[in-house]
Amino acid sequence: MCRIAGIIDSSRPIDLLQNEVKGMCTIMAHGGPDDEGFYANDCDGIVMGHRRLALIDLSPKGHQPMFYHNGKLVISFNGEIYNYLLLKKELQDLGFQFKTESDTEVILASYAAWGVESFDKFKGMFAFCLYDADRRHSYLVRDPSGIKPLYFRAIENHLVFSSEVKAFAETDYIYTEHPDWKILFLAFGHLPEPYTTFSEVMMLAKGHYLTWQHQSDTFEIKNYVQQHSIKEITNYQEAKTTVQQSLYVSVKKHLLSDAKIGVFLSGGIDSSILTLLADKILAEPTELSKLNTVSINFEETAFSEKVFQDIVVQQLHGNHSEYTITPALFSKHFPAALKAMDQPSADGINSWFVNYFAKENGLKAVLSGIGADELFGGYPSFKRMGWVKQLKRLPKFILRKSLRFKKASLKRAYYLSYRNTVGEYLFLRGIFTPEEIGRLLSCSIAQIDQVLQNISISPIPNHLKDGERASWLECNLYMQNQLLKDTDTMSMQHGVEVRVPFLDQHLLGTLAAMDADLKFKGNYAKSLLIDAFTDILPRSIWDRKKMGFTFPFQHWLRKDEHFLHSIKTSENTFASTMVDDFRHGNLHWSKVIALYQVFTRFRV
């Protein structure tokens, strides 16, 4: 994993572009502490930069930007290609030669062999810019699950791209605040793709590539993901076996690294399965390394899962490290965690701390259980879709009267009056209600409705059953915009790569081929996943109430007057009232974090 940036602009001097790209890379140096490099081509007005976090082929040969085909192909790449060894063997059989042991060179050779069709062959997490000097085309490409971010600006005959939004401010182009970002953020708790705080900067859609044609200074964006037929699975025993085999293979691929790698072990179902599988894999005679695991605990026993972590650790053969986050340690680093946010988020603080300790442990890559809850039915939303279906049948005027209720979850029924994907999601996971947003931003509910009913978000496919609808919402909105984005931002602040085996393309295809009843109709949450691994997963890990990986934010932040006073609410009495409500325990911590983002951190 690395950080990439670049500019294509044939109307400006190349040395100015170089200076700006260097500035972009410098501000993202935390994500690539091992090396940096730049490439410039005056003919086509392109400059690309790279900050390297070395994980595969740690030698200087892995330096980027990397060249191929006599320097005619150039790439700046962020991510990992887990099937690169298979592709490399296939390319060698076709006569292609390699000078490095890196997956980066395999991308270049694949493009040389198959052109843009190669993009669908890559299995992993990636975002890259590839320049083809012969065709005079440049490509921005993002992985099918959107694990790696890739932001871009493509207006006025120029293209700017980066792994982080903050880097765009290092260029001399003019950026304006997006007029609707605060409404979107207060409703969602994040900014849904493709939106950012800048009107001119967008996120490239997952599974898509942007082609920049240097001769005409024009571009087009296309989906490169092809549909691969997979045998339908209708038998539960077959479903269990397939999940078991697919996840085992995925974990094995995700452990591929020339640097120290480990697993986050929270003590929950998902991290425990990954840990036990990884330990089994690394205990094989052919493996030279042992598993490293990292756990986080708290003095507040209500939030600690140490007893469950210990149960798993007793079965391991590797090295386990555990850390305790005290209120004093949290207060010391909390300002740095807030400052690390690239885009507004009502969450993400826990990711900063987990990766901080991974770095302390000397790890450069860690495996995370992100995706399991979304794919196997681990959230309350999976049980609420029938309720959503019933409420949506009510007339709009009745749903809009729900703002009169006192309970926030009932007030959110207002969102269902939108009759769209956004309305369903915000009913299930919305942060603030339209009435609250209006009072915080001094705008009308009609204005809020206009924004939220017209944002560019794909609709849920009509053929999906209830469980599948919940999974679609959780994967494409919550996980995509909140979990993956926060995890990437916060992990890269420490130069740590987070890998997500549950989002392996083969596993995703396997789950898509299953009947919904097999995935979501068990006697307990995530039945299929649990039943697939009962041979290694202790019953005490899964047969208990789900805790989730949360910090004692509600207790700690109420005592942090420095933080609460930093929320500049003097011009908005309603916001001030909310902060006071939080002090008295009557407001959830995520809302006060959101207020800080709007009134202080991202205030323009």
Write structural notes for this entry.
The model has no long low-confidence stretch (mean pLDDT 93). This protein has 25 helices and 17 strands. 41% of the residues lie in helices and 16% in strands. The protein has a six-stranded antiparallel sheet, with helices on one face. Strands 4-5-6-7-11-12 form a six-stranded antiparallel sheet. Strands 15-14-13-16-17 form a five-stranded parallel sheet, sandwiched between helices. The relative contact order is 0.11. The longest helix is centred in the C-terminal third of the chain and has 27 residues. It is globular and about 70 Å long. By secondary structure, it is of the alpha+beta class. Helix 7 links the parallel strand 14 and strand 15.
Q: What is the secondary structure topology, with strand pairs?
A:
Elements: E1 2-8, H1 14-27, E2 35-41, E3 46-52, E4 66-68, E5 73-81, H2 84-93, H3 103-114, E6 124-132, E7 137-142, E8 151-155, E9 158-162, H4 181-188, E10 202-203, E11 208-213, E12 218-223, H5 236-254, E13 261-264, H6 269-282, E14 292-298, H7 306-313, E15 319-325, H8 327-340, H9 349-360, E16 365-367, H10 372-376, H11 381-392, H12 396-400, H13 408-411, H14 421-429, H15 434-441, H16 445-453, H17 466-492, E17 497-499, H18 505-512, H19 516-520, H20 527-532, H21 539-542, H22 553-558, H23 561-566, H24 573-583, H25 589-601
Parallel strand pairs: 13-14, 13-16, 14-15, 16-17
Antiparallel strand pairs: 1-3, 1-9, 2-3, 4-5, 5-6, 6-7, 7-11, 8-9, 8-10, 11-12
